[in-house]
Design brief:
By secondary structure, the chain is an alpha+beta fold. It contains nine helices and twelve strands. The strands form four sheets. The chain has a five-stranded antiparallel beta sheet with strand order 2-9-4-7-11. It has a three-stranded antiparallel beta sheet with strand order 6-5-8, with no helix packed on it. Strands 1-3 form a two-stranded parallel ribbon. Helix 8 packs across helix 9.
Length: 270
């Protein structure tokens, strides 16, 4: 059975406004048994083989040269019966907002075959691989911005509500937004369910279905991810615990070790 999982992309390495996986390979043996979704825009550039990309329940056959666009919050899954190789670009939503780009409200064409976009992606991949270039971040950001503008101008339209995104899915997304905005204080399941106007038991079932984790697990994992930023900025363990919504330093340390595999001291001023 294919499960559904929510992925988080809160921080991007090396100040680059994207994550880029090169020459990712799928075979029938290593295809994930999970569909996933995330807030970020994702591009899959097919370089070898044939396969299928499932976007919100609709299947698209792909071949070399094809570019699949995964919209913000779109459930997706990539698989093949033979061998498939592709480059995967995941774009930093926060950086786009700083540029005045809010692609969450847009719906992009699911699949395109554009030599212009393909050349841009090749330039981005080249700049990304040039790790010795002091202008690497600037060049990558410039190329990425050109890619996004081209996609918006040529391959997007205003997103309209559809039956595919069920009320349950919308409720889960609303609860995630609420948690991320209020994680620093005490939160209860009753409060979260009241905010999103649904029964708490129904919310628990839907949340587990669409994220692969319980609400409490998601909340504590998210708090720990925010705690890393505090620790790296020099905040003490006790202060970090309370700033991130944990009831006590000991409860924070227990959860932090559970979700990161390290003691909080591992991240202090690293």
């Amino acid at each position: 059975m294919i499960r559904v999982r929510h992925e988080e992309y809160d921080s991007f390495t090396g100040a680059l406004p994207f994550s880029l996986g090169l020459n990712l390979e799928r075979t029938p043996h290593n295809c994930s048994q999970e569909q996933n979704w995330h807030e970020n825009l994702e591009l899959q550039h097919i370089t070898y083989g044939n396969g299928t990309v499932l976007l919100d329940g609709k299947a698209y056959s792909v071949k070399p040269g094809d570019i699949c666009l995964v919209n913000s919050n779109e459930i997706h899954y990539t698989y093949t019966d033979t061998k498939l190789r592709y480059n995967c670009l995941i774009i930093d939503t926060a950086w786009c907002r700083q540029m005045g780009i809010h692609y969450e409200s847009l719906s992009f064409s699911p699949k395109l075959n554009s030599q212009r976009i393909e050349k841009m992606l090749a330039s981005l991949e080249e700049a990304y691989s040039d790790t010795e270039n002091p202008l690497r971040i600037a060049k990558c950001s410039q190329i990425l911005l050109s890619v996004i503008i081209e996609l918006i101008e040529q391959y997007s339209k205003t997103k309209l509500p559809t039956a595919v995104q069920s009320q349950n899915f919308s409720t889960v997304k609303a609860s995630i937004r609420f948690i991320r905005e209020n994680y620093s204080r005490k939160l209860t399941l009753r409060e979260i369910s009241n905010v999103v106007l649904t029964d708490k038991y129904a919310l628990c079932r839907s949340f587990k279905q669409y994220t692969g984790q319980t609400i409490v697990e998601y909340l504590n994992r998210y708090r720990c991810s925010r705690a890393i930023d505090c620790l790296q900025n020099g905040t003490t363990v006790s202060e970090t615990a309370f700033l991130c919504g944990f009831a006590s330093p000991s409860f924070f340390i227990k959860n932090f070790k559970k979700y990161t595999g390290h003691n909080p001291s591992f991240f202090k001023m690293r």
